[in-house]
Amino acid sequence: MTDFVTRFAPSPTGYLHLGHACSAFHVWDAARAAGGRVLLRIEDIDQTRCRPEYETAILEDLKWLGLDWDGPVRRQSDHFDDYEATISDLRTRGLVYRCFRTRREIAAAMPAGADPEEWGFIGTPLPAADEAARLARGDAFAWRLSLAAAEAALGPRYGRLSYVDESDGTARTVRADPRPFGDVVLGRKETPASYHLACCHDDALQGVTHVIRGEDIREMTAVHALLQALMDWPQPVYRFHPLVLGPDGRKLSKRAGDRGLRAWRDEGKTPDDLRRMTGLP
Questions:
Q1: What is the pLDDT of residues 151-162, one digit of tens each?
Q2: Is 188 strand, coil or helix?
Q3: From the candidates 63, 189, 251, 254, which is the catalytic residue?
Q4: Among 38, 45, 82, 181, which residue is least crowded by beta carbons within 10 Å?
Q5: How many CB atoms lie within 10 A of CB 190?
Q6: Do residues 89 and 229 lie in contact, with contact meaning Cβ atoms separated by under 8 Å?
Q7: Is the Cα dihedral 205, 210, 212, 215 positive or negative?
Q8: In whole angstroms, what is the distance from residue 96 CA to residue 86 CA?
Q9: In what side-by-side order are the strands of the sheet with 162-165?
Q10: Cβ of 84: how many Cβ atoms within 10 Å?
């Protein structure tokens, strides 16, 4: 056994599909090659979409794929207090602010032709009296990480933000620039912690040394590098694998209703068949 620790962290918002199987194969293959461990984390922070039956199906599908994990399963919904404590720490240090703008208002403020998935919103904290009035009315808000405050807090370290990428088998240092993402959301009323906050917190807490995930999440690693620097969390090494695409060339998606693993299983496909379908030997 080595010090290699990675994790597989699906969200129970639907059934696992071929893209999830591909990612799982990459994770377990890397851990087995290194003589390391795989942790299973259930990212169920979005309580409006996550369902217990999907979590049960995830565990069943992984067992069917022949993939076992080390130690107990960590369910993020059991640890909201931990994430709220992190936001409280950032708030005490003046690094987050309450943003009362709705998604519709933010979309209306976007420049013409901007991609909502890529445009980084930069907000301004309300004056104390205005904020108090909004809170007294019970208005919803999101905690946003102030990019300007983060840059000021880190000083010269901000310009040196980076992470190690081993995707091609060799370690190389990649400059991390969080500016395109703007003031990212770290928590909302309906979702007490964002994906960014919860996954970085848990990677540090669980001693994850290697994060292995799809190519589509590469760019947002810059946000994670920023959070890790602000919280003095250890930074794992990253590896990004190619995505499994549908016939139309888009990434497979649970929201789009792409075919789940259990449908392939019911059709008589085996785990080895799925490996070949994802392009793995």
A1: 999 999 999 999
A2: strand
A3: 254
A4: 82
A5: 11
A6: no
A7: positive
A8: 11
A9: 172-175, 162-165, 237-241, 210-214
A10: 15
